[in-house]
Design a protein that fits this description.
binds magnesium ion, binds adenosine monophosphate, 325 residues, alpha/beta, Nucleotidyltransferase, domain 5, single chain, five-stranded mixed beta sheet, 44% helix
Length: 325
């Protein structure tokens, strides 16, 4: 079964094509704000502008024609409403014109399922860290339960905001990582973990303040050490609660080597296994939507067209996991 997946929840417009478990194409085009943070309407306009081109590129990469597509999947939520609407409209018109079934899938769960497929993790605690999300998730009684999450600013967003304040180019995450590698002095910063939930706003603001009289490299180093220790603590607690011995790291921030290292060390100490996702499949992309589309379609069939409106705050634990047998 050849499934075309569409991603449009935030800054990335992506189209991926899967033939069962095999990625045939995965093309993304990312909106970058001219200044400041992401502007939802501008991002949606970007998606409208590039969607036909991205589709052609994906078909080219897969060496397929439109008529070869058997199923259309799209990210139904959670995300920014104008962006979600653009993706849903594009998906509906594509499915109608090709006369193929359509399925709407959950963005966060798509990150987990492509991660499991590509890493070999079977039943992990997933740490999903991106620009818009920070969640600690594990499968329990038929649903992906959110054991812990961010209470304010998601990790990627906090790194990007800090980066802007520090005069680093957007996105800030990778630049903070590079600077942190040159730092060595630990500066005390607020560490806030409540149960398995985390708060990054105070930490980010304090780190910005430290820029006035500390070296950028040391502030970046301390920011990473504090943030990632918080994430690692929450993941470890979730493993104990859920009785899992695998960790899967995904989302754009998963590219960070220090975060990978800390989680890996924690796993080694517990006798657990650590997995991460190839970079091209860890950030927002269409292939993961296509793969979850395949899983959902195989287990519970297509969606009715009238059930394909976007769901802005679609929670991970609202979705019945019908495919994990
Ligand atoms: P996503 O929302 O999943 O597309 O991921 C984008 C986010 O990942 C942005 O906030 C980036 O700053 C962040 N990011 C990308 N690479 C890294 C890295 N090496 N270290 C930390 N954050 C990163
Ligand atoms: Mg994402």
């Amino acid at each position: 079964m050849i499934c075309l997946g569409i991603e449009s929840t935030a800054h990335t417009f992506g189209i991926g094509i899967m033939d069962g478990e095999e990625v045939l194409a995965n093309v993304t085009d990312m909106y970058t704000p001219s200044e400041g943070g992401i502007h939802p309407r501008e991002a949606a306009e970007h998606h409208t502008e590039v969607c036909d081109e991205v589709l052609e590129e994906a078909l080219d990469e897969a060496d397929l024609d439109r008529e070869d597509i058997d199923l259309v999947a799209f990210s139904r939520g959670p995300g920014l409403p104008p962006c979600l609407r653009t993706g849903a409209v594009f998906a509906r018109s594509l499915a109608l014109s090709l006369d193929v079934p359509i399925v709407g899938v959950n963005h966060c769960i798509a990150h987990i399922e492509i991660g499991k497929l590509k890493s070999g993790a079977e039943d992990p605690v997933t740490l999903y860290v991106s620009g818009g999300n920070t969640q600690v998730i594990a499968l329990s009684a038929g649903k992906y339960r959110v054991f812990g999450e961010v209470l304010d600013t998601p990790v990627g967003n906090a790194l990007d905001k800090f980066g802007r304040e520090a005069g680093l180019e957007h996105p800030g995450g990778p630049k903070v990582e590079r600077n942190a590698e040159q730092g060595s002095k630990y500066i005390e910063l607020p560490y806030t973990v409540k149960g398995m939930d985390m708060s990054f706003s105070g930490l980010m603001t304090e780190a910005m303040r430290k820029l006035e009289d500390e070296k950028l490299e040391d502030v970046c180093y301390s920011l990473q050490e504090t943030m990632f220790a918080m994430l690692t603590e929450a993941v470890e607690r979730a493993m104990a609660h859920a009785g899992k011995d695998e960790v899967l790291l995904t989302g754009g921030v998963a590219a960070n080597k220090r975060l990978q290292g800390m989680l890996e060390t924690m796993c080694e100490e517990r006798g657990a296994s650590f997995y991460t996702v190839p970079h091209s499949l860890a950030g927002d992309n269409g292939a993961m939507m296509a793969w979850l589309g395949v899983l959902k379609y195989r287990s519970s069939g297509e969606d009715e067209l009238e059930d394909t409106d976007f769901i802005q705050n679609w929670r991970t634990d609202d979705v019945e996991v019908t495919w994990d047998k």
